[in-house]
Amino acid sequence: MDQTRYLQMVRTNQFERVYRRWKEKKVTQVEAARQLEMSERTLRRYVVRYESEGVSGLADKRLNKRSPRRASQQEVEAVVALYTERYSRRNIRHFYEAYTEEHGGKRSYSWTKKCLQESGVVKRGRRRGPRRELRERKEQEGMMIHQDGSTHEWVSGKQWDLIVTMDDATGEIYSIFFVAQEGTWSSMRGVRDVLEGKGVFLSFYSDRGSHYWNTPQAGGKVDKGNPTQFGRAMRELGVVMIPGYSPEARGRSERMFKTLQGRLPAELEERGIEEMEEANRYLVESFVDGFNERFTVEAAEEGSGFVPLLGVGTEDILCLKQRRVVGNDNCVKYRGLSLQIPPTRDRVHFVRAKVRCMSMRTGLWRWYTRGSASLGFMTRKGT
Which of 7, 74, 164, 364 has its CA 20 to 30 A from that of 301? Predict the structure, then answer.
């Protein structure tokens, strides 16, 4: 029984109960009309119909009439065919945008959803879980940045990691790209895009991945006193890192990835994109601007929490740094390599000197000594 007929049954039962009390003179006509939430005139009309036709006289005459706005079978079949033939990889919301914007569809989203689900081409979603309170967004852009990665079959037969860095206040995506596997370098690349495009932000929110945090006990609290290479870089930038301890705590980024997983695979397939390099080019040149335009919201307050990068080279921060002691041959051992420190104007040699080695994404190595102007590039021994 649908909701309309169920409500009709409830109203009929209520009328019969009040009608009997009125006939037994337990309530007046005015009181009976008030209990049924109708006027006295309408009550008298219902009484006449009930006494002459019985329960059938109370039925809404519109129930058996076809609505003039009801879609024809041909229209339903056309919408189902459009979905199955051209947009079968899209979710319903994504398909509805194409249906209305590109094909001139006039029906509502609810009608389109019901049409596809009842035809069997789209499965009904699972029932939602327990209700949770939504955390309010930050007041201004730049006050908190989210970063996360999602492993998914973005193109047929290939599992890639999608790294997204977004703003908490607006939901705007500042950096998005595919990599073979999420890690320290991919996280630093996303932060570099934000630094060079907007500036230094106030806080950074992420999961407890091993490249973000050191976690002594699996599933336990992070060790904020023992930062990873990424954590060290954030400290040098003056950015506060905040760990998320559950998917629900990262709800904003989790919902964003759900949207991306419902859209990106379909769009990549429609354009015949199968290689990572081409997919990354599509993200930057075509996808991210349209996505931000559709889903970005206004910040609660004007202004910005971003601070400009003044005289700070990101390559000296977003890198891997390790302390080493120089050997007798003016070399340091770093990740299985023997790196040669050349002589400088300050010193002829650096034997037994404590230096800090910096490994950059470009494959170069730099070094420097604390309290000294000595700074330069290292080369592999023998080259």
Answer: 164
